[in-house]
Amino acid sequence: MGAQPQDRLVALDAVRDAPLHVVLVEPQIPPNTGNVARLCAATGCALHLVEPLGFTVDDRTLKRAGLDYWNALGVVTHPSLDAFLATFAIDRCWLLTTRAQRTYAQAPFARGDALVFGKETAGLPQRLLDAHVDRALRIPMREGAVRSINLSTSVGIVTYAALSALGFPGLR
């Protein structure tokens, strides 16, 4: 049997050299997180999960969505958003929200940046977005068509755009 999600929990120092850090704040839907884990395994990006989670890391649906790729990534958990922000400088974080003025295509991504996504039902806290308007990015959508794009789809869009800006480090 391959590695299980809980077997891949690592300390932050173990993923410091990742090209990007994908951060899910209070994710609630296991298949979304599993899909993001698979993306991180494919790209070499680190996955950060900010608690509380809407599932356990040994959840059956989380394992199934990540398939057998859990051995190809490290997962860092943080007890709260404040704890995560204590480990990453805000000027290295990009805050993804439907409420931003700037699009992800306008961001000057750099190696080691953190792409921070909020929980499926509420997004990121408004107080964080208000305090760091210059770090907020959005994915363009047709007005009034949908409230937001699925979390794992959003992560894929922005992660690959950032990796493209970096020249797809370590990818072929």
UniProtKB/TrEMBL annotation:
UniProt main location, coarse: cytoplasm
Keywords associated with the record: Cytoplasm, Methyltransferase, S-adenosyl-L-methionine, Transferase, tRNA processing
CDD domains: SpoU-like_TrmL
Catalytic activity: cytidine(34) in tRNA + S-adenosyl-L-methionine = 2'-O-methylcytidine(34) in tRNA + S-adenosyl-L-homocysteine + H(+); 5-carboxymethylaminomethyluridine(34) in tRNA(Leu) + S-adenosyl-L-methionine = 5-carboxymethylaminomethyl-2'-O-methyluridine(34) in tRNA(Leu) + S-adenosyl-L-homocysteine + H(+)
Known EC number: 2.1.1.207
The keyword Transferase appears for this protein: yes
Signal peptide: none
Gene3D superfamilies documented for this protein: 3.40.1280.10
Cellular component, GO annotation: cytoplasm
Keyword Transferase: yes
Chain sites annotated for binding S-adenosyl-L-methionine: 96, 118, 139, 148
Residue ranges annotated for the tRNA/rRNA methyltransferase SpoU type domain, each copy included: 20-160
Coiled-coil positions: none
Compartmental location: Cytoplasm
GO biological process, any: wobble position ribose methylation
Single Gene Ontology MF annotation: S-adenosylmethionine-dependent methyltransferase activity
Function noted in UniProt: Could methylate the ribose at the nucleotide 34 wobble position in tRNA.
Record-stated family: Belongs to the class IV-like SAM-binding methyltransferase superfamily. RNA methyltransferase TrmH family. TrmL subfamily.
Protein name, UniProt field: Putative tRNA (cytidine(34)-2'-O)-methyltransferase
Organism name: Vulcanimicrobium alpinum
